[in-house]
Amino acid sequence: MTTSLPPIRRIVTGHDAQGRAIVVSDETVAVLRRPDAAMASSHIWLTDAAPADLNTADDGKQKIAGTAPPDRGTRFGILDIAPGNTRHPPHRTDSVDYIICLAGEVELELDDSRVTLKAGDILVQRGTNHSWVNRGSMPARLAFVLIDGAPKRKGSFGKTDLAR
């Protein structure tokens, strides 16, 4: 997928040995996976517990776990959707998803309805079956935070579906 969207820059803060706030890393994030030719998903951060450990030296890279967040955890990522793409297979995760449309327009298709998100729109999705379609002429970029939810349902994307 080629895109006119800028690369994703991830800056992570932490503390030095004296407890002072510092920048731990500042880097461009690579695409993690491509669910299909029209989409690219980038991993930003993942936590595997609540409350999250603020003292860990982990840089978040070793915790890539698939689409859904870990049990009692979160997943933060970016999804780029090419213009003119056709509907990909519907899916769901057992999570509460906070989604912000950062650029372009994208259509959220649910089982019986559709809604268009434009840059600046915010969606709270609660474990619903859905699909994304970009019917426009510009790429769309979504930022998403997935928070582990219940109940767990058969057919939901799981923790190890990285190849999907």
Write a compact overview of the structure shown:
The protein has 164 residues and is mainly beta.
> How many angstroms does the end-to-end distance come to?
16 Å
The share of residues in extended strands comes to 35-45%
Structural class designation: mainly beta
Q: How many strands, which pairing sense, and closed or not: the largest β-sheet?
A: 6 strands, antiparallel
- How are the strands of the biggest sheet laid out side by side? 3-4-5-11-6-9
**Residue-averaged pLDDT:** 84
Beta strand count: 11
Description:
This protein starts with 7 loop residues before the first strand and ends in a 16-residue tail after the last strand. A hairpin with a 4-residue loop joins β7 (105-109) and β8. Residues 159-164 have low confidence and may be disordered. The chain has strands at 8-15, 21-29, 31-33, 39-47, 74-81, 95-103, 105-109, 114-118, 122-126, 131-133, 140-148. Strands 3-4-5-11-6-9 form a six-stranded antiparallel beta sheet, with no helix packed on it. A three-stranded antiparallel beta sheet has the order 8-7-10, with no helix packed on it. By secondary structure, the chain is mostly beta strands.
